[in-house]
Amino acid sequence: MGSSQSQLTAEELRDYRELTFLTKKEILHAFKRFKGIAVGEVLADKHARIPVKYIEQMPEFKCNPFRDRLLRVFSSCKDERMSFEDFLDLLSVLCEDAPVDVKAEYAFQIFDMDDDGVLGEDDLAEVIKRLTSWDSGCRLETPDVQRLIEQVLAEADLDRSGHMSLMEFQHCMLKNPDFARFSVETGVLVSPAMLLQQGKWQSSFSLRL
């Protein structure tokens, strides 16, 4: 079974169940997957922080244009590494049972490319660029990108400040089905990224416009 340093205790499992939106089975499978990414490090210390470049190679992340932002936002030390608890937080927020307001808060951070606490035109342009670059058939010309940014801000920028605050973003997510659908379909907000189904992890990073 391995040493106590490489296994989750009953107390840890109980705490993780209370602090996440995941089931015991999902937590155990998440730990198995995390341990499989860097076996030596995690076997030596289950609290090890492993390089995010290892996690980026997981099939569930490789095709996601926001993988760098996802892993940065959920890295508690912002050190290009993640602990199992960081990894578990990520899975918890992306699972189907997480409340929409929680998902919206983290989606906001992921879209906030310059980490300045608001979503401005540059942030939205980068989001659109990443989404459309993923599929060469969906690439937009600069005027189309600007027009889309203006439409988003016209809908979401309630105080006409020229950018979106977290509160405005959450308001649009909760009140506007079209805006919510946009965020869902980026694969960042509502789609469960990695849920345990029939013993396998399935990616739901849907990227459609």
From TrEMBL:
It comes from Rhipicephalus appendiculatus (Brown ear tick). Residues 99-134, 144-179 form the EF-hand domain. Pfam families: EF-hand_7. SUPFAM superfamilies: EF-hand. GO terms for biological process: integrin-mediated signaling pathway. One of its GO terms (molecular function) is magnesium ion binding. Keywords: Calcium, Integrin, Magnesium, Metal-binding, Repeat. InterPro entries: CIBP, EF-hand-dom_pair, EF_Hand_1_Ca_BS, EF_hand_dom. This is Calcium and integrin-binding protein 1. It comes from the Eukaryota. The keyword Zinc does not apply.
